Amino acid sequence: MLALRWADIDVAGASVSVRGSMQATPSGLRIVEPKTRTSQRQVTLSREPVDALRRHRAAQAEERLHLGAAWEDGNLVFANVAGRPIAAGNLLKRSFEPLLKRAGLPRIRFHDLRHTSATLLLGRGIHPKIVAEMLVIAVWVGT
Asked: Which tens digits make up the pLDDT trace of 24-56?
């Protein structure tokens, strides 16, 4: 998820191409190829995530305009407030955990969302193969 770039998303075709993962290196965060060849794939999206991505892209464009030349354009879908990569630990501590608290939910691991998604999708009658392909996105954050 943290390595997802806008070029990886086909909004019209409702799909995401998994092409990389974020890795911490001595020189900072960088996008590398996924660990396995089978991790590189195309994932079909339902309407809800496509709509959410459209809204997110519009909001990110506003942030870019506001920051001007200070925005570091890495073409990342999920970037920090300056356009740079987000560290997984920061995502969890600054965004995910406060969101759980505001929603009145117990503290869970980010990976638990993957299990919940699978259960809900299978319960809606989505074919297990499609569910498995959709869940590959959750692996991007290393959970």
From this structure: 888 888 888 877 776 777 888 888 889 999 999
CATH of the domain at 48: 1.10.443.10
| Sign of the CA dihedral running 45, 88, 116, 131 | positive
Give the count of beta carbons closer than 10 Å to the beta carbon of residue 111: 12
Range of the domain at 127: 6-139
What Rg do the C-alpha atoms of the chain give, in angstroms? 16
> Domain for residue 1, yes or no?
no
Domains in the chain, number:
1
Residue 137: its pLDDT value, please?
A: 52
